[in-house]
């Protein structure tokens, strides 16, 4: 089976779920019941208890009212008796009074007081002749029926027989009038308070057993007249008391001064407006817990019953659930075994046909069908998998073969790379050790390579120029424009044409003047080449410093135009200078003269003093001639002892003669040599070139030579004549 394994947490079984569900339902029902009981039954029990306590308070109130009413009624009855009204003798009256006392044992004392307050007659003769004029009952009973509130026995206390409780009385008094209606005195009944306590016991007898109720009779000032032992004669403060004092009647739940909660029924006796009644508050209390104990017990019973019911129902539900889930468990077990089965293990269990109930029938049938389908799919998949594995094996072999080829190719590539790197290193070493500076530029004119010799020659470090445009740095402005134009043209030329054009343009040696880093001009011979490449074309140049060669050429050239002995321009230089002087003379419309100077008898100096002295004489002679003419004039040595002077910017022919005349004496001065001092003369021949004369140097020189010759002849003849 190929179902995915169960990855979620293990869930409880259906039997457990049903059992727990039924138990939870029962418990929930019991809880609801408890809440309902708590709510309704408690309210009902509280209302019932309050009603009961209220009724008790009413009973007590009515009983108190009845007793007071009886006492006042008895006083009224007595006051109207003939014997009392006539009051012939105290004994007669006493007899009547004691007869009444016998009818109600709680009448502790009955007496008749005279209008002046002295007791005329009394039961058992107590207090007779004692003045009670200041007593409340006497004052209150003089003109109407009067009920006197609970009070301790002041006068009678010691005269009455001792009792368990101290004597307390409630009075009933009323006026007595004789037959003529004259006021005869006040009749009074002292009721001992014991009747009230009995009354309470009678009323509470059944209730007390069941409910532990307490009855309180409270006077108007809040003093408890009657109540549980220990609380009598004490002040009480309670809400129920306030309500009772206001005349209300009812019941409530409240906290008493002892800190406990009580249900309290309250009522008020008498009528404050009626002096013949006594106004007391009657409170009947019962501990709230006790009043509600029935409900609490009911709650416990329901809870116990609910628990038992829950257990029974849960057990029943478990049995039923087990029975209903048995077929499902069977199916589930089969699926789990199939899930846990491994390939190659024992045969997988089959799904049986189950008929327990409809759903199981459908489920088992569907499951069996699904497993059959799955088996078919598994078989198909297995065969596909086998094919796939075969294909994968083939592909794997193919990949391994190609990987091997690739590995070889990579190894080849690596060795090629290494070779290339070695070649590059060699090339770099060659370039760096080359005598010529090497520069490589891309088509944009940006420097891409720069060897050590380039650093030395041009002054920029490799790191400074790589990536920088070349022209801006070192080409003179004129060359820079041409260079930029050429680079543009090369960049615009397409494809193979680039190589051809570049090769044609660059495969040559050219001499250039560059600027080095210091701005100094640097003559170089550049060998240029174009190197096409896939990563971009390069223009390379080897620059050879030709400044020394140039300097050598220059000095050689200068030497070729100089006379080595005197340092003056030689014949070749003189020819060039003369040609230029003739052109200038034509341009400036000025005359130009050529002096042809030849030392006279120089040979004799050589012969007599030697060649070195002769050379010295020639040098001194040359210097004198040089100093004797203008700086702008040219003095040169033609050969041997022959010198040429080219004088320019002459106004006329006479100016030339003047210059010659100035020269003669200078030259005639003795020459001081190393070994001798020699004086000799020089013959000067003058030839003048006028503007627009033919530009004929040879003719001009020839004329000067001839003139000099004539001059020398004349000089020699003169010397011969002397
Ligand atoms: N010391 C020296 N003598 C030279 C040099 N070149 C030529 N001479 C000599 O100069 C002389 C020139 O010859 P001439 O002009 O015939 O001799 P000269 O005595 O001056 O004769 P006149 O010109 O007729 O007066 C020769 O003796 C050359 O050998 C030179 O460079 N140095």
Automatic annotation (TrEMBL):
<feature type="transmembrane region" description="Helical">
    <location>
        <begin position="20"/>
        <end position="45"/>
    </location>
</feature>
<dbReference type="GO" id="GO:0006355">
    <property type="term" value="P:regulation of DNA-templated transcription"/>
</dbReference>
<dbReference type="InterPro" id="IPR052155">
    <property type="entry name" value="Biofilm_reg_signaling"/>
</dbReference>
<dbReference type="Pfam" id="PF00990">
    <property type="entry name" value="GGDEF"/>
</dbReference>
<feature type="transmembrane region" description="Helical">
    <location>
        <begin position="302"/>
        <end position="321"/>
    </location>
</feature>
<keyword id="KW-0472">Membrane</keyword>
<dbReference type="InterPro" id="IPR029787">
    <property type="entry name" value="Nucleotide_cyclase"/>
</dbReference>
<protein>
    <submittedName>
        <fullName>Diguanylate cyclase</fullName>
    </submittedName>
</protein>
<keyword id="KW-0175">Coiled coil</keyword>
<keyword id="KW-0812">Transmembrane</keyword>
<feature type="domain" description="GGDEF">
    <location>
        <begin position="590"/>
        <end position="722"/>
    </location>
</feature>
<feature type="domain" description="PAC">
    <location>
        <begin position="508"/>
        <end position="558"/>
    </location>
</feature>
<dbReference type="InterPro" id="IPR035965">
    <property type="entry name" value="PAS-like_dom_sf"/>
</dbReference>
<dbReference type="InterPro" id="IPR013767">
    <property type="entry name" value="PAS_fold"/>
</dbReference>
<dbReference type="InterPro" id="IPR033479">
    <property type="entry name" value="dCache_1"/>
</dbReference>
<dbReference type="InterPro" id="IPR000014">
    <property type="entry name" value="PAS"/>
</dbReference>
<feature type="coiled-coil region">
    <location>
        <begin position="367"/>
        <end position="398"/>
    </location>
</feature>
<dbReference type="GO" id="GO:0005886">
    <property type="term" value="C:plasma membrane"/>
</dbReference>
<feature type="domain" description="PAS">
    <location>
        <begin position="423"/>
        <end position="494"/>
    </location>
</feature>
<keyword id="KW-1003">Cell membrane</keyword>
<keyword id="KW-1133">Transmembrane helix</keyword>
<dbReference type="Pfam" id="PF00989">
    <property type="entry name" value="PAS"/>
</dbReference>
<dbReference type="InterPro" id="IPR000700">
    <property type="entry name" value="PAS-assoc_C"/>
</dbReference>
<dbReference type="InterPro" id="IPR043128">
    <property type="entry name" value="Rev_trsase/Diguanyl_cyclase"/>
</dbReference>
<dbReference type="Pfam" id="PF02743">
    <property type="entry name" value="dCache_1"/>
</dbReference>
<dbReference type="GO" id="GO:0003824">
    <property type="term" value="F:catalytic activity"/>
</dbReference>
<dbReference type="InterPro" id="IPR000160">
    <property type="entry name" value="GGDEF_dom"/>
</dbReference>
């Amino acid at each position: 089976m190929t179902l995915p394994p169960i990855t979620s947490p293990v869930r409880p079984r259906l039997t457990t779920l049903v059992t727990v569900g039924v138990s939870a339902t029962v418990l929930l029902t019991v809880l609801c019941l408890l809440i309902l009981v708590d709510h309704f039954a408690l309210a009902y029990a509280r209302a019932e208890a309050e009603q009961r306590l209220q009724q008790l308070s009413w009973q007590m109130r009515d009983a108190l009212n009845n007793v007071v009413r009886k006492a006042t009624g008895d006083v009224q009855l007595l006051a109207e008796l003939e014997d009392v009204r006539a009051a012939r003798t105290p004994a007669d009256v006493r007899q009547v009074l004691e007869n009444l006392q016998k009818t109600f044992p709680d009448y502790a004392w009955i007496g008749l007081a005279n209008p002046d307050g002295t007791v005329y007659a009394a039961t058992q003769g107590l207090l007779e002749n004692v003045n009670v004029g200041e007593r409340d009952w006497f004052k209150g009973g003089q003109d109407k029926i009067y009920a006197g509130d609970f009070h301790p026995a002041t006068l009678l206390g010691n005269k009455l027989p001792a009792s368990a409780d101290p004597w307390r009385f409630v009075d009933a008094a009323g006026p007595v009038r004789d037959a003529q209606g004259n006021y005869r005195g006040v009749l009074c009944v002292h009721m001992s308070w014991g009747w009230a306590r009995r009354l309470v016991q009678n009323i509470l007898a059944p209730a007390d057993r069941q409910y532990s109720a307490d009855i309180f009779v409270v006077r108007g000032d809040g003093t408890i007249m009657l109540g549980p032992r220990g609380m009598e004669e004490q002040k009480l403060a309670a809400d129920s008391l306030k309500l009772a004092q206001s005349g209300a009647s009812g019941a409530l739940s409240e906290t008493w001064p002892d800190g406990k909660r009580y249900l309290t029924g309250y009522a008020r006796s008498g009528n404050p407006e009626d002096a013949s009644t006594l106004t007391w508050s009657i409170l009947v209390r019962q501990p709230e817990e006790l009043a509600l104990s029935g409900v609490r017990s009911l709650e416990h019973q329901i809870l116990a019953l609910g628990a038992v019911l829950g257990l029974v129902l849960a057990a029943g539900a478990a049995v039923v659930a087990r029975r209903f889930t048995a077929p499902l468990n069977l199916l589930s077990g089969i699926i789990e075994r199939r899930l846990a089965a491994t390939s190659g293990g024992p045969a997988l269990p089959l799904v049986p046909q189950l008929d327990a109930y409809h759903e199981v029938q459908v489920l088992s049938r569907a499951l069996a069908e699904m497993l059959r389908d799955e088996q078919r799919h598994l078989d198909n998949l297995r065969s596909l998998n086998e094919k796939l594995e075969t294909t994968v094996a083939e592909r794997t072999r193919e990949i391994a073969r190609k990987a091997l080829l690739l590995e070889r190719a990579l190894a080849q590539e690596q060795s090629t790379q290494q070779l290339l790197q070695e070649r590059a290193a060699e090339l770099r070493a060659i370039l760096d050790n080359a005598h010529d500076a090497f520069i490589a530029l891309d088509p944009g004119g940006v420097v891409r390579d720069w060897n050590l010799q380039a650093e030395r020659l041009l002054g920029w470090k490799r790191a400074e120029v790589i990536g920088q445009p070349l022209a801006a740095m070192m080409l003179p402005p004129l060359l820079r424009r041409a260079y930029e134009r050429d680079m543009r043209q090369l960049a615009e030329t397409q494809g193979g044409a680039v190589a051809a054009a570049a090769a044609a343009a660059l495969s040559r040696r050219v001499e250039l003047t560059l600027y080095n880093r210091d701005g100094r001009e640097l003559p170089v011979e550049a060998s240029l080449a174009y190197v096409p490449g896939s990563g971009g074309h390069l223009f390379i140049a080897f620059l050879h410093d030709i400044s020394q060669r140039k300097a050598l050429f220059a000095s050689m050239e200068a030497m070729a135009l100089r006379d080595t002995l005197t340092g003056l321009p030689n014949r070749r230089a003189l020819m060039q200078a003369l040609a230029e002087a003739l052109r200038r003379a034509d341009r400036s419309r000025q005359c130009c003269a050529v002096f042809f100077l030849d030392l006279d008898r120089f040979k004799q100096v050589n012969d007599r003093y030697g060649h070195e002295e002769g050379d010295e004489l020639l040098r001194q002679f040359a210097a004198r001639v040089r100093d004797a003419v203008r700086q702008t004039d040219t003095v040169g040595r033609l050969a041997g002892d022959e010198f040429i002077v080219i004088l320019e910017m002459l106004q006329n022919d006479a100016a030339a003669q003047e210059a010659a005349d100035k020269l003669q004496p200078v030259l005639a001065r003795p020459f001081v040599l190393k070994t001798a001092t020699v004086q000799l003369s020089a013959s000067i021949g003058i030839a003048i070139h006028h503007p627009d004369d033919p530009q004929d140097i040879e003719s001009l020189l020839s004329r000067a030579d001839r003139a000099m010759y004539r001059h020398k002849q004349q000089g020699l003849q003169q010397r011969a004549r002397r």
